[in-house]
């Protein structure tokens, strides 16, 4: 059933898969981010309560959802790495970590900027905000553990265990607004119910969500390629690749300025 | 699946569910302290058998009862009642209210319980719900007139 996946355990085929995915991911990300952001910020109607201030939702919600989504993807990669001992799995795990941390930071930052005018406070130690902050620290923990080991296979295992343990925080973040009294609102779109947002405001949000996801995938793919090259620098196929790139540069005619 | 992979998978699943169980129990035990605020009925009737003491600092969250907002004509002092499903608690506050403060709005206030049903607040935060809609739709569905947050009303 999973036979088609097996070739990508090899670094060379994983690298080639990344190369062929890259243009599609970047193109899709730029297109949907442009459409979603312009639609959301300029053309979607203002909210009945919050006026134009609500528009920060178009950055806040996609980054927050995907800070959790990226973590789950990272944990799945860690599981594959630990159980099936795929080197490429650990490499993709560590390629995702800083991107996920960035998403978490954006969610926290836009949340603070939204909280000040609407709630009256930049920060409140409620369950949602605190658990999202813990998610940021989990990302930092995974990254720090990976850097701490010189043997990268060992580093992948240690960081992978950390990523797997931390995954319990994801449902806590999601359900924090239901389990406890919080200042943060309940779920608007990520629930098994009709979204509590008017359709003309929802569409740009969904498009931006897709855009953020593609952007994360694109950056991850680039970082994964770098990681593969760094780790496999002595392999013949990497040296061949480097040689052919050098060759191309020499052949291209340079115009004098 | 070969036996080594299988045993690794079992170990990962076992350790994972143990940790999840431990954290779940911990959070369950801490439920009361993780809640951000008391509701008005918890302030008056007690929560889990414990009554907040007069003089205790606490947070309260509830809806502003329409018609109870009394503003002082010469200062920023304001008082209003909060309610959830039961009795009301009066909040006294001297300061600038957030943009979203209005009658019927969810509010979280931090302050000292000065008598059984009154809180002297030093911070008032507005809570909003998860519904977003354009003003015309809100008017049609809920009969709410769009109230544009007043410009320049926030403190810095």
TrEMBL record, chain A:
The keyword Transmembrane applies. Keywords: Cell inner membrane, Cell membrane, Cytochrome c-type biogenesis, Membrane, Transmembrane, Transmembrane helix, Transport. InterPro entries: Cyt_c_assembly, Cyt_c_biogenesis_CcmC, Cyt_c_biogenesis_CcsA/CcmC. Pfam families: Cytochrom_C_asm. The chain crosses the membrane at residues 24-44, 56-83, 90-113, 133-149, 161-181, 201-222. It is found in: Cell inner membrane; Membrane. Residues 21-184 form the Cytochrome c assembly protein domain. Its main location: membrane. It comes from the Bacteria. It is a multi-pass membrane protein. Required for the export of heme to the periplasm for the biogenesis of c-type cytochromes. NCBIfam families: ccmC. Belongs to the CcmC/CycZ/HelC family. This is Heme exporter protein C. It comes from Alteromonas ponticola.
Automatic annotation (TrEMBL), chain B:
Keywords: Cell membrane, Cytochrome c-type biogenesis, Heme, Iron, Membrane, Metal-binding, Signal-anchor, Transmembrane, Transmembrane helix. Heme chaperone required for the biogenesis of c-type cytochromes. Transiently binds heme delivered by CcmC and transfers the heme to apo-cytochromes in a process facilitated by CcmF and CcmH. The keyword Transmembrane helix applies. It holds the Pfam family CcmE. This is Cytochrome c-type biogenesis protein CcmE. It is found in: Cell membrane; Membrane. The chain crosses the membrane at residues 9-30. PANTHER family: CYTOCHROME C-TYPE BIOGENESIS PROTEIN CCME HOMOLOG, MITOCHONDRIAL. Residues 1-8 are cytoplasmic. Heme binds at residues 128, 132. It is a single-pass type II membrane protein. It comes from Alteromonas ponticola. Belongs to the CcmE/CycJ family. Residues 30-156 are extracellular. The keyword Metal-binding applies. Its main location: membrane. It comes from the Bacteria. The lineage of its organism: Bacteria, Pseudomonadati, Pseudomonadota, Gammaproteobacteria, Alteromonadales.
